[in-house]
Amino acid sequence: MNRWSLIRATLWHDRRTHLGVVLGVMIATAVLVGALSLGDSLRQSLRAIALQRLGQTTEALLTGDRYFRQALAEELMDQLGDDLNGGWIAPAIMTHGTAADPAGTAPSVAVRLLGVDERFWQLGRAAIELRSDEVALNRYSAERLGAAVGDVLVVRFDKPATLPADAVLGDLEDRRGSMRVRVAMIVDDDNLGRFDLEASGQPVANAFVALPALAGAMDQHGRANLLLVGGERASSGELDGAQFNRALAARWRIEDIGLSVTDLGDGRGYQLQSRHVFLPDHVRYAVERPLDGQPILGYLANELMVGDRRVPYAIVAGMPDEWFASFDQGIGSELEGGIKSHTIWLNDWAADEQDLAATVGDELTMRYYIESADSRLAERSASFRIGRIVPMGGRFVDRELMPPFAGIADAEHHADWNPGVSIDLGRIRPRDEKYWRLYRGTPRAFIAIDVARDLWGNRFGDCTAIRFDASRFASVDDASRAIGAQLDPAQFGWMFQPVRRQALAAAGQGPARYFGGLFTGLSLFLIGAAVMLTAMLFVFGVEQRGWQVGLLVALGFTGRQVRRLLVAEGAVLALLGSLLGIAAALGYAQLMLLALRTVWADAVGSTPINFHAKVGSMVGGAAIAWLASVLAIMLSTWRLMRTEPAQLLRAPGAHVADLSSRRAWYEWPAATICLAGALVLAAWGHDATADMQAAGFIGAGALTLIAALLLVRRWLSRLAEALGSERAVDSGVGASGAAMRLTWAGLSWRAVGRRAGRSLTVITVLATGLFLTLAIGANRKAPPSDPLEGAGPTGGYQLMVNLTHPLAHRLNQRPDGTADAAWAGSEVLAMRLTSGPQASCDNLNRPAQPRLAGVDSAALAARRAFSFISIAPGLRGEDQSWNLLHADLGPDVLPAIADQPTLVWALGLAPGDGLTFTDERGRTFEVRIVAMLESSVLQGMLLVDESRLLERYPSLEGYGRFLVRRPETDPDDTAQLIARAHADRGPSIVTTTEVMTRFQALENTYVSIFLMLGGLGVALGSLGLGVVVLRQVMDRRGELGLLRAVGFSRLSLMYGVMIEHLGLVAIGLVAGMAATLVALGPALRGGLDVPWFSLSLVLAIILASLIAWIGLAAWWATRGSLLDALRHE
Amino acid sequence: MTVIELDNVGRYYATTAGASITVLDSISLRILCGDALAIIGPSGCGKSTLLNLMGALDQASAGRVMIDGRDVAGLDDRQRAKLRNERIGFVFQAHHLLPQCTVLENVLVPTLVRGASSADLARAEQLLDDMGLADRRHHRPGQLSGGECQRVAVIRAMINQPAVLLADEPTGSLDHANASRLVELMVKLNKQEQCALIMVTHSVELALRLGEVRELRDGRLHPWRGGP
C-alpha cells in the first residue's frame, strides 16, 4: 500500500464519476490540438502547393521586357558543367495575355502566357510536346474559358516595347500580337499546371504554348525572358544558387540586355546603342570613362523656330565637347563660355531660306516634350543663339545620331511617323519629306551634351549612344566584349532568385504561421468552457467524497498532502482525457477542415487545405490542455481544502467552502469605476475610427459586464449573509437569525444563496459566454454604405478597374495625355504596379517583396482620401496625410503607406518598419512604412509615390489599376464605358463596394467561426449548468424527500428546482445582454452588418440547451423514491 | 503522564448580528495515559466540538489545549497534522472507510503519511487478527456489516499506536449488540495499548463501561450524577 495504489484504487472505484472529467479534458484537448493541427495543415498545404507550382525548379531568372538569347541556357549549362549535378536550365517566355474563343462569344480571360519547350516540362516530370499551333491550359484557365481539348482559342499579348508607351517618345505603335491555337491538353497541377514563381495565394490561369512559336509571334525569335534551373538533384538543394549568377556573369553578352555595337564605317568608330533607346546611367558610368567613350543624346524637337519661321519635328543631337572641338581647335573658349547653355549649331538645310532663314547670332527657340514630375507629357521650350551654320556633308550628316525611336526609326516617309508623342502630321512639308528621304534621322541641330541632358535626361537615362574611337577596338566583337566586361548583369536586376527556397519560406510565414494560434484564439472560449467543466466535475466528484478528505486530515495528513493526492488523481484523469483528446482532435480537425473548404472557405481563400498533423503540435496541445485542466483542478481543490475537516466529515454536500457571506468592500467602488470606464470608452468609441470603435465598444461592454457581475456578487453575498444565521441555527450553535419568509419562491432563492459561490459561477459563465459570443459575433463588417465618402474604405471611388495590359495614360485622358471630355467631372486614381505578389489577407503566404503601387500622392492628399490610423514614430509631427510619401528618409529609403490588413495581417509590419527590395538596376533599397490606413480597397499593396517609384523602376510601363469616381454617372454606365474602350486590355471592373465585401468576407468568416465555436462553448457551459443543477439537487435530495413527505408533488418539486435555476439563467442573461447591447453600440449606429438571424439562432440554441439541461437534471434528481433519500439522510 | 490537558478552554461563535454564541465555556480537564472517559450530553451541547478541540481538528477561542504537553495553538497546520497522525486516533459515528480500499488497506491509510513499512503491515494484520477480522482483511467495506466496518475504523485509529483514541458517537449507527461489542473492543485496546480513550455518546449504559463519565451541559463539564 502506498499513495499511488490509493490513487489507483480511488480512480478505479470512482470511475463513473470521473468519466465526466475525462470527457471534459478530452473536449478541451480535441479543440486545442484540432486548432493547432489546422495551422499545421495550412502550412503543410502551402508548402505542398509551393512545391507543386515550381516542380523541380530551384532558381529562376526573369528579365521582364528584356529578352535574351535562348542559347544562353545552353551556354550556362556548359559553363556550369558537372556542377549542375544532372540538372538543367530551361529557357521560357512568360508574359501576360488574354485568351478567348475566336468567335468572341464570351469575354476574354486574362491568362499568364508561357512559351515553353520540353526542358520546362521535365521540371514537372512530364513529357509534353506542343506544336506551334497548340496550347496547353491548366485546369483553372480551362474552367474559366470553358475550354476543352480540341477547342480553338485566340491568345493575345503585347510584344515588348523599346520604350514604355507612357514614356516620352515611347512605343505607341500597336504592339499587340496574337496566336490562333488549338487546345492540345489540360495540364494537371502535378505537371506544372499551376506554375507560378510567386506565392500569390490566388489560382493562376496558365496557358502554355511552344516557345519558338511564341518567340516568333512576339518578334523575339530565338529569345526568352525566363530561365529556370532545376532537376532531380537540383531540387534536393545540392546546388549553390550563387554559382548560377557567377556563370551568368561569365557567359552573358551585351545583346542579351538589348545593347548593341555598330561599326560606323569610314573610320568613324563604334557606337553603343540600346534597343530601349536610352542607355541607363549605370551603363554610361561603367563604359564612358573606362573605354574613352563619348556620350550622345539624340532627341526629337517638336519645332525649331527663328522669328516666325518654323521647322517641325526635327532631330537634335546633344554632342560631347570633343565633337565640337574636333571641328575647330579654337572653339575652346566658346565651349567654356556659351555653347553649353546658349549655343546651337544649325545645319545648312535648316538654316536655309526655305526653312528658318537663319544666320549666325540669331536666336532659335526649340520646343520639345518631356515627362513632368507627375508623369504627364508636358511641352517645354528652350532658347539658343545660333553659333554656327554647318554644311550638309562630312560628319555633320550622321544618320546614326538618331536613336532607334519607335515609330520613327523604321518609317519609310516622314508622314509615316508615329512617335510616342502627339504630333501633327499635317505640318510635315514636302521639304521635310525630302530631307527624310535624303538624310533620314540626321540631326538638323547640335547642342552641347550637358545642355541636352539638362533638357531631356529622364528616368531611362541621359544619353542615347556612346561612341568610341575607331582605334579603340579591333572589331565589333572586340568592342562588345570590352563593353560587356565593364558591365555586371546584376546591375540590370539580372540575378537568379532562389525561388524554391523563397516559396518554402513564404509558406511557413505570414498568416499561415499564426493560423493555428488564431484558430486557437477563436476556440478559446470553447476550450475554457471545457476546462471549467472539467474542474467543476472533478470538484463535484471530490465533494461527493468530501468525508474522505476530512478523514485523511483527521488521520494526520496535512492539507498539502491531501491536495497533492487529489491533484495527482486529477492529473491522471486529465492525462487520460488528453490522450483520448488527441484521437478526438483528428476527427475535430477534419470537421473544421470540411467547414473551411465549404462554409468558411473565405477564411483561407482559394488555398486547398489537406490534413497534416505534426506530432509536436499534438503533444504540445495535449500538454497545454492537460496543464490547464490540472491547474483548474488545483485551484478548485485549493478552495475545497479551505473547508474545515470537521465540516468535510459531515454528510456530502454540506461542507463546501462557498462564497464568503461577508460583503467585499470593493464591490461598490469597483462596480462604479467599471461603469464609469464603460461610459468613457463608449464616448471615445463614438468618435474613433471604425476599427478602434469596435474595440472601444467591446471594451465598454466588458466593463459593463464586470460591473454587473460585481453587483450580482454583492446581492448573492447579502443573500448568503441572510442565510448564514440560519445555518448557525441549523447546526445548533447559533441564534435564530433574521427569518426569511417561507414561500416556494423564497425556498428557491434560499437555495441560490446557500450555494452563492456556485450560483455566481453559473451566472458568470453564462453572462460571459453570451457576451463574448454575441458581442464579437455581431461585429461583422458591413460593406461601405456610401462609396463616395472620401474618408471611408473606398476613398470616395466607386469602381476598381484592373487591366491585364496596362494603359499608358489615365482612364480619363486621351492617349496624348490630354483630358477626355467624356470623363468630365470624374476623378481617377491611376496606379503603376510592380510585379510582386499581392500582400492581401487571402494570400496566406508572406511575400518578401510585395507589390508596390505608384500613386499620385498629391492628388490623394488634396482629396484627403482614405483614413489614417497610425503614423510612423518620428513622423508624427509631420503633415499626416499622403504627403508623407514625399518624406525624405534617406537616399535609399522609399516611404510607403498601406492599410491595416496588409501590414498587420499579411506582412506582420507596423509603421516605422521596412522591407528590403531590389530595383530594376539591381540596387537594394528599403521601403519603409510611414503610415497605416484603415482597412480599404487598397489592400494588398504598398503605396508609394509614383515619381519616386519610377526612379527605381524606370521601365515600369503604364497603369494596371485604376480607382474611378464619377459621382454624376451610374457606375454601371461607367463600367460599360471602360469595358468598351479597353476591351482588348483584358479589363476587370468591379465596384469598390464589392471589393470591400470580398475583403471583409475573410474577417466576417472569422467572426462566423467565433460565433459557432463560442456558441459551442456556451452550449458546453449550459451542460455544466445542467451538472450544477443535478449536483445541487442531489445534495438536497433529503430536503426534497422531506418536502415530498409533507405533501409536495414531484411535479411541483421539479417546478421549484427549475424556477430556482432559471432564475440564475435569467440573471446571467440580463447581465450578458446588457453588456452585449453596450458593445453593439456601433451596430445601433449602422456601422456593422449585425447577423441578427444567426445571433438569434445562437441565442435560441443556448436558451433551449439551458432549459433542456436544467429540466433533465431536475427530472433526474427528483426521480425514484425521495423518501428513501430522507431515510438515508 | 498527561496526554491531554484543557485549561479554561472556551469556544465561541460570532453571529452576523454581532452577538456571540458560547458553545464551550471554561472547561478544564486532564487526561492521563490509559484513562478512559465518556462524555455524555444532549444533542447540540458541544460534545463533538469538544472532541474536535482535543483532537486538534479545531482551535479554542479561549484557554489552552495541551496535547503531550504542547500547546496546540502554537502549532502550525503541518505540526498539528503530525500530532494527529502520531498521537491521536479518531473514530466517528460513520466509519468512513474508503470504499475503494480493502480492509487491510483502510487500516494502513494513516501510515501513508510517512509511508507504510513492513512493521505497519505486521501491526495491522496483528490488530485485525486480535479483533477477529483476519479473514476479512482483503474484503472491501461494502462486503462488511456495519459493526465490522466500525471495528475496522477503530483498528485504523489504533494503527499508529496513538496516545489517545477519540471516539465521536462511534456506536450511533450500530444496534445494541454491535455497539456493546465495539465499546468492549475500545476498552480492551485502551487497556492493552495503554492509550487514553475519550468517547462521546448518548448512551449512558455504554458510557458507564468506561471508568469515568462526565456530562457536558451549558458549555461546561460536570461530573455525572446518575440518571438516564
Task: Write structural notes for this entry.
The complex is a heterodimer of chains A (1129) and B (228). Chain A is α+β, with helices and mostly antiparallel strands. Chain A contains 35 helices and 29 strands. Chain A has a six-stranded mixed beta barrel. The longest helix of chain A has 44 residues, at 992-1035. Chain A is elongated and about 135 Å long. Residues 651-657 and 724-743 of chain A have low confidence and may be disordered. Chain B is an alpha/beta fold and 228 residues long. Helices cover 32% and strands 28% of the residues of chain B. Chain B is built from seven helices and ten strands. In chain B, strands 6-7-8-3-9-10 form a six-stranded mixed β-sheet, with helices on both faces. In chain B, strands 2-1-4-5 form a four-stranded antiparallel β-sheet, with helices on one face. In chain B, strand 9 (212-217) and strand 10 form a beta hairpin. The model of chain B has no long low-confidence stretch (mean pLDDT 87). The A-B interface holds A 1-3, 5-6, 9-10, 12-14, 547-548, 550-561, 644-646, 649, 661, 721, 724-725, 728, 732-735, 737 and B 13, 15-17, 19, 21, 23, 43-44, 46, 48-49, 52, 55, 57-58, 77-78, 81-86, 88, 90, 92, 94, 96, 98-101, 104-105, 108-113, 115-116, 121, 156, 160.
Q: How many runs of DSSP E, i.e. beta strands of chain A?
A: 29
Mean pLDDT of chain B: 87
Largest interface: A-B, 38 and 46 residues
- What would you call the structural class of chain A? alpha+beta
- Major pleated sheet of chain A: 6 strands, mixed, barrel
Binned strand content of chain A: 15-25%
Overall mean confidence score, pLDDT of chain A: 82
Shape of chain B: globular
Instruction: Give the CA-based shape of chain A.
Output: elongated
Distance between the termini of chain B: 33 Å
Q: Which oligomeric form is depicted?
A: heterodimer
